[in-house]
User: What shape does this take?
Amino acid sequence: MSYFDDTIAAISTPSGIGGIGIVRLSGKNAIGIADRIFTSPKNRTLKKTPSHKIIYGHIVNSNKEIVDEVLISIMRAPHTYTKENIVEINCHGGAVPLRRVLELALKNGARLARPGEFTQRAFINGRIDLAQAEAVLDAINSATEQSQKAAMEQLSGGLSNKINILRNKLVELTAFVEAHIDFPEEDMESPSLNDMQKRALKICGEITKLIEGSRHGMILREGLKTAIIGRPNVGKSSLLNALLEHDRAIVTELPGTTRDVIEEYLDLNGFPVRIMDTAGMREAKDVAEKEGVKRSLRAVKGADLACAGKSACLHEFIY
Assistant: This one.
């Protein structure tokens, strides 16, 4: 059962020009709102359409003028992403038709969805848990195949299952400990104190292993932050361009050409790397170069890995 009374709507496809764009509605009145702005050549209504069916027709305004030719998907609660009624209007992917269809949905009773509100409703309505909700954004933002696989494993409940297993073990152990405290003289079939201590240590080890694994997950999600550092004219920008296989950074014979941190993503066999080209490390000769060195030092301190050119001598700048 949904905890929300209103119906939300939003454009669910990225901005830009494409063949198809989707306006999504979710809420108890989603089908009714869509029915008010939809007309079918065969006079079909969305209210009488079975769940998970697609109907061809047109979106029309209050004057019955055709706004766009569409395919509408009907998905009835609770077997939907949000566990609410969902309507997806598949129209042409230009900015104008999408905007006009969304405006009509809003004028007929829907409310503009806040960022992430469809997933928020899926979480609050019990469709997904918090770990899975976080994985939705990871799947959207995944930059490599490996990061996408990790996000999908979490979205399908991999992390949640591990946490639930640990939770059940802790609940069981807590029950045994409380029983020993409350009923010390009773003859109960329960582990000894020594066995319970071993169980507790084992659970702590599993939790520690899970926490350590989060570090790998963070790198897959955000990329291994790698800074290319060194003095001016040691080939830092040339290395960046060679790794990217295109001229991303300006390369000249003049020292101090790079004044700011240049950041790009690399996909190394499915492993994401955030590689940063930094300004040459030396005593700055002007205000702009001084700021560039400051930003480079911040990037180095926040990096997971540093590739140092010859004669980097960072210690004289950092310490």
About this structure: The chain has ten helices and eleven strands.
